[in-house]
Amino acid sequence: MDQAGRLGFVMGVNSAVFDILLPHQLNSAYDSGLTFGEVVEGITQFYQESENGPIPIVWAFQYVAYKSKGASAAQLQGQVELLRKLSHGVPLSSEGTPPQPVTAVLFS
């Protein structure tokens, strides 16, 4: 997917999750002060590591926001390790491999 497609995807997720579904609970947690373009860059970088492929994009948003707020390298590593563990709760497919989420395809 090209940069314009990624930008549209991120804007759509932002609108659906943060503006419509959970505006009050999540806005403070995800308000990073970043532009959508910067969020796309951060998410793209996040998904460059193949181990992050199964992590839902909403969690990648959280990681990018956390990083932008000045989290230390140790804090970021701890968060990404937790997200990886949580994302492995997805049931395995019949072939024995986890299904590839759409975000892994869009941002890799």
Summarize the structure.
The chain has one domain (3-88, 100-106). It contains 6 helices and no strands.
Q: Sketch the topology as an H/E string, one letter per element.
A: HHHHHH
Task: List unreliable stretches of 5+ residues.
Answer: 90-94, 102-108
Strand count, sense and closure of the main sheet?
none
Q: Estimate the mean pLDDT confidence.
A: 74
Count every beta strand, where a strand is a DSSP E run of 2 or more residues: 0
User: Helical stretch count?
Assistant: 6
Please compute the radius of gyration using only Cα atoms. Answer: 14 Å
Derived structural class:
mainly alpha
Strand percent estimate: under 5%
* Oligomer category: single chain
* Cα-to-Cα separation, first versus last residue: 9 Å
Helix content: 55-70%
Q: Any idea what the shape is?
A: globular
